[in-house]
Amino acid sequence: MNQLNGYLVLLPILIPLTGAAAGLLMRTRHRLQAGWSFGSMLTSLVFSLTMLYQVWDRSAPIVFQLGGYPAPFGISLVGDLLSATMVVMSQIVLTAGILYALDSKDQVTQYPTFYPLFLMLAAGLTGGMLTGDLFNLFVFTELLVISAAILTSISDDKLGTEAAYKYFYISLLAAIFLLIGTGLLYASYGTLNIAQLAQLIGADNEQALVPIAMVFILAFFMVKSAVIPFHFWQPDFHTAAPTPVHAVLSSVVVKLGIYGFFRMTTLLFVGQAAAIQDLLVVLGVAGIFFGGLGATGTYDAKRMLAYSTLGQLGFILVAIGWGTTLSLIAAIVYAFNHSLLKAAMLMLAGSVASRAPVKTAAFSAIVGLGKSVPLAGVLFLLGSMGLAGIPPTNGFVSKFALFNSGIQAQEYLPLALLALASIITVIYTTRAFQKIWWEPLPESVHPKKYGDRLIAPTILISLCLVLGLWGEPLLQLASATVDWMGLPAEYIQAVLGG
Amino acid sequence: MEIFTALAIGVSFGIGIFQLLRRNLIRSAIGIIIISNAVNLFLLSAGAYQGEVAAYTTVIGQRADALPQALVLTAIVISVGGFAFVLEMLYILSIRYHTSDSDEVNRLKY
What we know:
The complex is a heterodimer. By secondary structure, chain A is mostly helical. Chain A has 21 helices and two strands. Chain A binds chain B through residues 135, 138-139, 142, 146, 149-150, 153, 158-159, 161-166, 168-169, 172-173, 175-176, 179-180, 182-184, 186-187, 192, 236, 239-240, 299, and chain B through 28-29, 32, 35-36, 39, 42-43, 46-47, 67-68, 71, 74-75, 78-79, 81-82, 85-86, 89-90, 92-93, 96-97, 105-110.
């Protein structure tokens, strides 16, 4: 039974990967390939939910040693509460993304390698969150990066290749940062296993190369989640991506960096965590304002939501930076809720834009188009309320947890700035809603009769409402996760054994 | 021998960063390739001076650490794929934009 449990960590990575390989064989039969990909993603989601249930139920992580080699020598996959929560969050959104792509009107979804690449992206993201080995993290992020870049470069948007080039270039640099950090840590401690590294760094803090390695790994995660000095690729890249891919990129792919910050501050560099946390608070506040103001000033619905991601990630960074138990709980809840909300809103914006006579999401082209899809308007309004933190959506739960933790930690200056920035969120989402659903349709514009269907965003927004009205399970999960993150010694023992 | 390896790594990093900061897209792509190779050398040097004979052979002596070599091999394979993709995208960009000036390949900003 124990052995069977171990495979639960492997399956959420293995199913999308084999699904992608098998999907390539079905490239001539498009409907079959699409259905197969959706099926594998759904199976993978079921297994990751099972994994989360098992980990939570036994309150011990599931560790799988690849190839049967014992821990510091082989590669271990570690499914602890933090990884499992993040994986479940990612796979919900990824499944919704494939569901949206199934009947998307974008040409790119007819491309024979679209679904295999999408599954590769899923495998890379899941693997990056589940791996317990620093070099393996590099391998999985490269898989993620190259699939995302190819998916964008074949986008319907003519500027897709330019966007993909910018992203891929900065991601190659990020990979180099991670390799340098890995090399420095290996030269100092002679291991790549995260658990053993955490043990050795905790025991011997004085190695000269540790701060340098920490900075390089921090820079890697900052590029991954578009934290402020490394943010410039994000709006460009996300805007040009096809809608189903954009929904995944802007909501869960950027959370890989957030996961990395959690791991760095609570496991890998516990001794140096204070320095990282101070930096994250400053950069987070800067990101909130930059993202909010950027979103207010854009002329494109999808670009607005991409900028909004920069701002919303800032809230999570500030919560990680405060570093108290309550604020870490708030950060996890915020990350979970933001993924669902942002993915749903992007799908809604994309769905309206798919009815425009020209292929764009610019406000000038989609003014008044929402009149023919009132359901999308209702859902978009609910999503905006969630982003701004108005009940009964889950955004209220996460904002409430965040501000509550800030008051407990007595961080009044950042809190005042956060409250100010929350108003900006209301401004830009209301502006988008007014442009698309309130203003009359111009006489000269003849929208297409059919656009993308609303099944996937409806499911996501219903999940948001459920989590808003009944947020207790998520809060409990988050608080169990933070309790677990406070015990790095148990993580180390679980991975290394003995 | 260490001093030569260190110098080689440092010089490759220097050349790579200089090329990376050029305006020309192709030159900056070459820069990133050079930096990537410098990083591979650096990873290799992390375990280069600990043993005398190759690992997994029957020769008697202190074994070299094989892990950095395995890492570099993986990193090289991944970066070859990445560079092929970069060059391919540069080819498409040069057809669409008729320039290699990075300031002019910037139609997404408005």
